[in-house]
Amino acid sequence: MSLRIFISHGAGRDADVRSVLENIVPRLTASGYDVFVDVEKLRAGDEWHEVLYREMYRCDAAIVLLGPETVAAPRWVRREAEVLVGRFKVGGLAAVLPGIVGDVSTAEARKQGFDALLSIQAAVWQTPDGERPKGADTLTVADRIMAEFSPQDLRSANPGARDWALRVARYLESARRRSPESLLDAARRLGLSEEELVHVSARIGAELFLSHRMLSGGLTEELPTAVGWLKPALGADQLRQLSAEVLPSWVDHESARRLLPAAATSGPAPAAGSPVLVFNAYEEWTVEQYVRRAVCNAPDAYSFGALERGLPTDDSSPAEALETACRTALRQVFRVPPRMPLDSRTVRPKDGTLSYLVLSAADHATEDLAVVTGSLRRDFPWLTVVILTGGAEPGPVAGIADTVVVVPPITVETELAAYKLKRRLDAVVQDSGTLPFSEVS
Questions:
Q1: Backbone phi, psi, residue 309, to 5°
Q2: How far, in Å, CA of 339 to CA of 342, rounded?
Q3: Most buried among 93, 312, 345, 353, using CB within 10 Å?
Q4: pLDDT tens digits along 259-311
Q5: CA 23, CA 174: separation in Å to the nearest integer?
Q6: What domain range includes position 61?
Q7: Helices (H), 221-334
Q8: 157 pLDDT exceeds 60?
Q9: How many CB atoms lie within 10 A of CB 395?
Q10: What is the model's pTM?
């Protein structure tokens, strides 16, 4: 899932280029990039033309290294540069970076057919008078190249977390294309340090770097403000989707994992299927945020249902009314059409999708909860039932086997602060703009 960098070079015959290559490849790899260098990646028996072209069309960004020997005999490097520049001009690459090293000037490189390459970002390598001096130090060129790459966060080996960060990064990339300064504006409002702001200014990887910072967790007042500074550069739908992506980041990941059935179950699986989770939150919304955080907000990774407050009054017993309401809610969870029966013909577990139903202990008698959850677990053993206890101390529920308490318990202050964070992000999406934090206190 790392960003792919293609390096075009003539290091085999050009000592200056080889020095730069040997300097930047380990640094790029250490910064989290997947680097393609033909001398390292081509295998015996490969059709090398085919492999090189494939990699040029798969990469996210490219570096073209030009030294005196490469410019003097430019055939294959020039061809690679043409392909890469073509992709860049139609928006297929984040950047193509020319690195000119040794005793060669930009004028000489242009004469040898690199005019298109140097017209893109030649200013990166030029002096203030428009020309790059000959004999540039290889370390200086290597450092200038590396300044254009933001370090990527490799601390998480979780593919879901990487996918989540990449989704957020795509919204940031869209914002940056429309307004180049928007990322820096958002990063400043997020409270990034001056050293981190340098990485947000980089040409490659800045969006993913900022994405990781936005998803780093915690209830921060700065997050809605940072998203708000992206508002002029994003469409309404993009802004709404970005806000929904970053919101669950307030939940601690290890706490959220308690909402995953596999994590909640220690030892053999309960005989009745998934355990019943007991959580001391007040709001169903809080449970869904925990689930979103646990699955790294992956699309279609879960289905979720909760009962409307208050059961209809009829001749049914409270337990019967509760079960009817639960099965009505489960039609939405399992996506069963209204006229079809809710049974094994229409309802089956779906690989990769977790199913949740949330009940409130404050709204129902304990014995009714025990009867209904037992019935639901027999019919739908993969369903995870979550019982909210509100401010009450969470603990096992009498009459329900295999209950698991979600720990650490959430505090009222944290749940309220999270709801205020949601309100502020909602306000960013609305035309009225961002609400001051005090207005939702």
A1: -65, 130
A2: 9
A3: 93
A4: 998 755 544 444 556 789 999 999 999 999 999 999 999 989 999 999 877 66
A5: 32
A6: 4-146
A7: 222-228, 236-246, 253-256, 261-264, 284-294, 318-334
A8: no
A9: 11
A10: 0.82
Q: Which of 229, 285, 287, 232 is nearest to 258 (CA)?
A: 287
- Average pLDDT, stretch 20-49? 75
What CA–CA distance (Å, rounded) separates 411 from 71? 66
Contact criterion met (CB below 8 Å) for 346 and 340: yes
Average pLDDT, the chain: 84
CA 355 to CA 303: how far, in whole Å? 5
- pLDDT tens-digit map of 196-234: 999 999 989 999 999 999 998 777 889 999 999 999 999
Cα 45 from Cα 81, distance rounded (Å): 25
CATH, residue 343: 3.40.50
Quick one: 9 and 120 in the same domain? yes
> Do both 368 and 421 map to the same domain?
no
Contact (Cβ atoms closer than 8 angstroms) between residue 65 and residue 21: yes
User: Do residue 394 and residue 426 come from a single domain?
Assistant: no
Closest CA to 405 of 395, 397, 392, 391: 395
**Tokens at residue 30, please?**
């250490």
Q: Which amino acid does the sequence have at 389?
A: T
Task: Taking residues 83-112, report their average pLDDT.
Answer: 85
Q: How many domains is the chain partitioned into structurally?
A: 3
Q: Does the pLDDT of residue 74 top 80, yes or no?
A: no
- Burial category of 326 from C-beta neighbours within 10 Å (exposed 0-12, middle 13-18, buried 19 and up): buried
Whole-angstrom CA distances from 204 to 144, 150, 160, 188, 193 are: 13, 6, 22, 19, 19
